[in-house]
Amino acid sequence: MGDIGGEISRGSEMPQELNDLLSFVQTNSPYYQRLWRDVPSDGSASLDQYPVVEHASYWAANTCMNSHVLTGPHVSGIVLKTGGTTSHPKVTFYTKDELRMASQQLGLGILAAGIRSHDRVANLFYAGEMYGSFLLHVLSIMDLTIPLVHLPIGGSCTSETTIQYMRESSATIVFSTVTTLVKLAEYLLERQEIMPGIRVLMFSGEAFYEDQRSRVSQAFPGAKIRSLIYGSIDAGALGYSASETDSRLHAVSSPYVILEIAPDGLTSTKATGVPGSVLVTNIGRRLQPVIRYPSGDLAEWVDYEKGVFRVLGRDTIGVRVGPVSIDTKHLRQVVTSALGVSGDLGAFQAVISRANMRDVLTLRVGYRLTDEDATRTAITTALYDARPMFLDHVQRGLIGPLQVEFLAVESFKISSTTGKLAELVDERPTV
């Protein structure tokens, strides 16, 4: 895992840099002072004795103009939104030096993902509205010493215009969300076109499911699919791509980050192949500290000593329909099982709405087929068989029957500012 992570996880004395950070934060951040009120302030506590951050309290304390998380006034740097796939985006604060460090880490991630001298990079991330992905990748490209050409296309163009720019500019590398890549692939394949000149598709911000890979690979037959970076605006750059064949494999971005995998959400493990919540401590974030902060993902160690881990997806995103709970990962499995999909499910989304004073679950499926009625019945039957409680509540009139829609990827609810596809959309009105 690197020197810092290895020492801490073995329970030995913490390195001075981390000790200094913890002392500084405990002295200057009102939020962490409260969270750590039972932790000794003399530097004797190991990292795993510090409480894990609870997201709700952290973000409630981190208001835009009166943050109790910050260790001091924010007088120079940048404010960015985070949380583009949730219904409540938040803000995060960086100093100039922290922003510079973040862009340098992203540059290391780009190199690990396979960029080469003289590549021509189509940046398809979304810009504006205080989101940072486009800007940070502009900075990361500029930080690299190898010669590159940056094509700042952005994410707001139509698929037709994006493809046109990429062709006219002879792009060889694509930076993008997964949703945008799938949309471009669908656009090309509908017209029986391909783009063989793309060498690597580099994605971040969303999971790349195996059932999406087939369609994307058909449209970009010469391209490898690599994780651009594993991280987030709030937590930082956490891991670099570590495999050409498994885009889930990453190496911890040590010494900038300490990454823990906690099966119970609290206590870290070194064991190989044991899934757990990802906890992040970012050594470089002093203004808005990130210490034992849950990334929201599950992962497992592949090689603890080398810091190699496999991202397994989001921590459970629960769908609650009336009194019935089910997670989106299970819903996706039900759909792919019913379809017998071998690898071309373009997109998936669960939508909760209200009708006739009842909650209704609608599954939106990005899949092209000839017999929608039969397939809809197969998916409904599969869910009812897998979750008898769901069927029971439908029959008792407590929730509405399952609805299934087959849509083109362009018709899904996608964030207009980040280009990400939300797996769960809650359309129920509240008062």
From TrEMBL:
<dbReference type="InterPro" id="IPR042099">
    <property type="entry name" value="ANL_N_sf"/>
</dbReference>
<protein>
    <recommendedName>
        <fullName>AMP-dependent synthetase/ligase domain-containing protein</fullName>
    </recommendedName>
</protein>
